[in-house]
Amino acid sequence: MTTSPVKPRDLRDFYENPAVPVASGTPRSLRQARMLARALGPAADHPQTVLDIGCGDGTAAATAAPLLPGHRVIGVDWSQDALRRARTRIPYAVRGELTGGGLPFAAESADAVLFSEVIEHLVDPDAALDEIRRILRPGGHLMLSTPNLAAWYNRALLLAGVQPVFSEVSLRGIHGRPGKEVVGHLRLYTPRALREFVAASGFTVVRLEGAPFHGVPRPLRPLDRLACARPQLASILLLHARRT
């Protein structure tokens, strides 16, 4: 068992702990950024606003920015520690949260939302998608990524009676599964569940793709890249949806 360095009192304490990973895997971020660039097209005379909600240390936004020339990318997070790190990578990063008072943006003010590796950490994902739908203009783009509960290796682990990768039973330590870091996952999705959930929240699903997981052991990474061809087996799910 691997334990976290600090025993958190609640989720806010957990995510304000600098030892908790908030970086986003570059291979996944790059694939997601390319999906968004294809969806938005060139800025031309109509620069668009992209919000990276739950931006963490700014990795995803910084990866996306060079592929979105002319568009405005703004990072959003409620963790002050994450925002301090994000501001070293991206020019705009503001504090905001999906629940409680909501995000500091007017209704229908954003053209696209990056929602990278966030939904699996939320107590109330329904309210989160409601708030994202509020700030997106009609037809606006949602680019969501999250771990796949049904990843190829998780299927084998479950057959062996082992807790799946990405799943966690405690904020204080790893129990019964491979891995070394506690990252605070509360919810996991299969491709079918993610599609149904997003559609039920007022979005039209456009595309679902797979991405590799940077934490897969090196000898298994070629297999993990191959699995991306079938999102049902991929480590990470990349979903593109539009506000209906």
UniProtKB/TrEMBL annotation:
Family annotation (SUPFAM superfamilies): S-adenosyl-L-methionine-dependent methyltransferases
Coiled-coil ranges per UniProt: none
InterPro entries per the UniProt record, alphabetical: SAM-dependent_MTases_sf
Domain of life: Bacteria
Pfam families from the UniProt entry: Methyltransf_23
CDD domains, alphabetized: AdoMet_MTases
Record protein name field: SAM-dependent methyltransferase
Species annotation: Streptomyces lomondensis
